[in-house]
Amino acid sequence: MTKQRSKLVVGNWKMHGRLAANAALLEGVARGAQALPPDVHVGVCVPFPYLAQAQALLGGSRVQWGAQDVSAHEQGAYTGEVAAGMVADFESAFAIVGHSERRAYHGESSELVAVKTQRALAAGLTPIVCVGETLEERESGATERVVGAQIDAVLAVLSVEEAARIVVAYEPVWAIGTGKSASSEQAQQMHAFLRARLAAKGAQVADVPLLYGGSVKPENAAELFRQADIDGGLIGGASLKAGDFLAICAAATAGASVAS
Ligand code: PGA
């Protein structure tokens, strides 16, 4: 029997949005989320300048909010950086860390991602730690080695209590923004692998939410979320339309009752 875990669906807006358009999207998501069952949790990770807007429009709703990154530094002379404490000032729940776009375009190492995870936790945020292999790594049979090293680097610096407070998102790089999602079998296989790594850290860590990300759409969400070790999703492109995002959240409901 699989343990029943609640579902979590988080939107990652990336560098999209403008003040006026955001209002309609945030209000639409907040309104639609009222109809979701209580075991489906919903969040949106917005660009830093819009955290105040998210706080104003989502406060008191079912939808939580957060940022897409935090600095590895607590404070200081780091021009352009945003500290986890600043993100927390806006009552944020989440901070994504280690997204593959940051690893690829900003040279972020797993060790840096580990420090960012610590900063987020210290500020009272839930870090959503992203891991995932490139197509080249998958095709050369290196998927488990790469993803295992990414998660191990983070777990190595956390206590068991801290590790129990993270969320992990498995996002194969080749599936992000490509329209080509991992199959539910491929995703489940990697989630089971990650679950075992987390469980090895400590029994309390085994049940941290494991999200799948990479071309999740209303059409494929239910099948992905039905898998035993997939506890929800990190949604990029499809989180920019309230209707699509809410349909994906609703699919988490449908998948929530299946055990293996
Ligand atoms: P996508 O992005 O849903 O647009 O593929 C997911 C992500 O990068 O978090």
Automatic annotation (TrEMBL):
Its EC number is 5.3.1.1. Its main location: cytoplasm. InterPro entries: Aldolase_TIM (IPR013785), TIM_sf (IPR035990), TrioseP_Isoase_bac/euk (IPR022896), Triosephosphate_isomerase (IPR000652), Triosephosphate_isomerase_AS (IPR020861). Substrate binds at residues 12-14, 177, 215, 236-237. It is an enzyme of class 5 (isomerase). It catalyses: D-glyceraldehyde 3-phosphate = dihydroxyacetone phosphate. One of its GO terms (molecular function) is triose-phosphate isomerase activity. Transmembrane segments: none annotated. It is found in: Cytoplasm. Keywords: Cytoplasm, Gluconeogenesis, Glycolysis, Isomerase. GO terms for biological process: gluconeogenesis; glyceraldehyde-3-phosphate biosynthetic process; glycerol catabolic process; glycolytic process. Belongs to the triosephosphate isomerase family. Involved in the gluconeogenesis. Catalyzes stereospecifically the conversion of dihydroxyacetone phosphate (DHAP) to D-glyceraldehyde-3-phosphate (G3P). Homodimer. HAMAP family: TIM_B. NCBIfam families: tim. This is Triosephosphate isomerase. It comes from Paraburkholderia acidiphila. The gene is tpiA.
